[in-house]
């Protein structure tokens, strides 16, 4: 292939999905491919690092992986903000210009819809780095009263993350010697902490009971009255709090909504090929409606399927391997112990999950999960 005849691949979003997809294309074609990867931010951060920042285990600077270290043959990473997507024409406008593509992959993740939950903008959340940093400063001032971990809607990123937050908060308060003066409650819109794995859910619920964490499943926080320090649930029940730790409602970024690609907040795709209804346009990761959880491991799995399809199409050798809907999630149980659940969405008639009990040994596995991706994508 020469530069003039090379198909142009345009990937929007350098998160889990975009980084893995472009890495695979670069590994396969080297400099013989024309990939442009666009992201508005200057660095990548693992979702789970927000919990580390919030509880003061790591600084925000320590968990940022600057995009300047993402250097791959055949891939050009541009720091620009996508302002319009014309999926029909595969033409994307950014604050830096207009990009046309033969293949367009939308990997812009999920955004937070603060307006969907009145009062949330005036409360604390731990799903952004800025929110986690604010909580890092607020938590030391909490020495007694009611803490409420409240999820404002589903689907949300990483189903076990709010459970992890409640368990880590318990540990944090025990370490500071104030747990006896504090109450922890946890409101979750899902019927159980990890619905595809009843065993994992049972273990988490048992951990809440052991630690005296009040668990309210099947309910979401519908609004917050910050003046009265009350969260109002979707059934009208009011819950008092002194400290609110929220998970905002999620949906695709505004630019995707404005493009007309989304339906009910998410981009419809063929769940096994990630193709959208627009020829040559795919969506991977949290923004795509595949029926699998919104988590980095699933974004990566989807990226592998799209990469294999693009490789087959560019080589004119048929079609690629389908998305398997399989992912492994690590779960912080507190006390330095990590559990693990392997979830399989597509190989059986219904999703299943295999649970691995929490242990200190699994912490090493989680560390490898992070360090292997850091090395693969950023060479660090
Ligand atoms: C607290 C917490 C804990 C988590 N724990 C885990 C875990 O243990 N394991 C796991 O697998 N997942 C975990 N996740 C989920 C994981 O972080 C996400 O599911 C994953 O990042 C999704 O990948 P993505 O590629 O779809 O989107 P993202 O990684 O969110 O990437 C999207 C990118 O698009 C960019 N972007 C958005 N809009 C624009 C625009 N207009 N112009 C240009 N760029 C734009 C963003 O800057 C971003 O870099 C966790 C998440 C949270 C919040």
Automatic annotation (TrEMBL):
Residues 8-291 form the FAD/NAD(P)-binding domain. Pfam families: Pyr_redox_2. It comes from the Bacteria. InterPro entries: FAD/NAD-bd_sf, FAD/NAD-binding_dom, SQRD. GO terms for molecular function: oxidoreductase activity. Transmembrane segments: none annotated. This is Flavoprotein reductase.
């Amino acid at each position: 292939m020469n530069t003039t005849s090379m198909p142009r691949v345009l990937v929007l979003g350098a998160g889990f999905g975009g980084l893995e997809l472009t890495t695979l294309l670069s590994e396969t074609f080297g400099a013989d491919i024309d990939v442009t990867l666009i992201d508005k931010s200057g660095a990548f951060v693992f979702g789970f690092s927000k919990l580390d920042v919030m509880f003061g285990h790591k600084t925000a600077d320590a968990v940022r992986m600057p995009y300047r270290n993402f250097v791959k043959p055949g891939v050009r990473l541009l720091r620009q903000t996508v302002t319009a997507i014309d999926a029909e024409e595969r033409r994307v406008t950014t604050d830096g210009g207009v990009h046309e593509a033969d293949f367009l992959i939308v990997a812009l993740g999920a955004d937070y819809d603060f307006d969907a939950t009145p009062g949330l903008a005036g409360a604390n959340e731990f799903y952004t780095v800025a929110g986690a940093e604010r909580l890092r400063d607020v938590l030391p001032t909490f020495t007694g009263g009611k803490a409420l971990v409240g999820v404002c809607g589903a689907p949300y990123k990483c189903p076990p993350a709010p459970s992890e937050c409640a368990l880590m908060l318990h540990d944090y308060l025990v370490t500071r010697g104030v747990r006896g003066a504090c109450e922890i409650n946890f409101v979750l819109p899902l019927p159980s902490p990890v619905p595809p794995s009843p065993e994992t859910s049972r273990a988490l619920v048992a951990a809440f009971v052991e630690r005296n964490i009040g668990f309210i499943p099947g309910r979401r926080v519908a609004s917050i009255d910050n003046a009265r320090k009350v969260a109002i649930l979707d059934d009208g029940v009011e819950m008092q709090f002194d400290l609110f730790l929220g998970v905002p409602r999620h949906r695709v970024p505004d630019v995707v909504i404005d493009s007309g690609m989304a339906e009910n907040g998410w981009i419809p795709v063929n769940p096994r090929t990630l193709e959208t209804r627009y020829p040559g346009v795919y969506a991977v990761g949290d923004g795509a409606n595949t029926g699998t959880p919104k988590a980095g491991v699933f974004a990566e799995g989807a990226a592998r399927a799209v990469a294999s399809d693009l490789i087959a199409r560019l080589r004119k050798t048929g079609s690629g391997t389908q998305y398997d809907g399989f992912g492994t999630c690590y779960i912080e149980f507190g006390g330095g112990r990590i559990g693990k659940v392997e979830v399989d969405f597509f190989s059986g008639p219904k999703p299943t999950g295999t649970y691995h009990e929490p242990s200190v040994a699994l912490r090493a596995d989680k560390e490898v999960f992070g360090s292997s991706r850091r090395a693969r994508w950023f060479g660090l």
